[in-house]
Here is the input.
Amino acid sequence: MIDSLVELTLDAFKKRLNEDNSLLVQREWGYTENLVCYFFPAATIEEIEEFQNEHNIKFPIDFKLFLMLHNGVQLFCHPKYGDGFEIFGLNEIYQHYIEYNYKDLIPDGWFPIGSDNGDMLFINSKDYKDNQRENSYLYWSNKLFVDNAKEIGLNFERWFERFLMYNGDLFWVWGKEKTYHYYGRLKQHLINIEKYHK
Here is the structure.
């Protein structure tokens, strides 16, 4: 049995990184760029337990294992402009959940664990049971509009594996775009490139 798919995924991903933790990534329409990843030191099991008890939050086992490897990461960041996808550590969860008072804006049992340009990744603690990997409990929301949040249909470790395999693309929203919208965006992109290069 696999003890930690999160650890296997991270180990494989880090083998693909250059010495400066950068990776050449291909995006749609032939766009490629070296993006950088930042990995923060692990949280201890004592810090995690104290955080859960203090804030009445219960982490799923796979997310807890992630925190015990890295207390937060920033993935696929532009080397000059930053951004990228942030998976929160304990401090960032506290900041978003308590300091920014998201707790009062989101459904009971939800807490944020990641962000991409303000769009949020949430765990719904009511959707998982202790130490059971088979539960799907992740939700994706445009900004804090959680009334329209979409269930991803995955737990953290399966989502994380796919996210790294797809080089940081938001794979869980791919099937939502109509083909004609895609080609409309491509047409506008090509017009912009032509204007830029004149």
Observations:
- The mean pLDDT is 89.
- Strands lie at 22-26, 32-39, 73-77, 85-87, 110-116, 119-124, 138-141, 150-151.
- The helical segments are 5-16, 45-55, 61-69, 90-99, 156-165, 179-196.
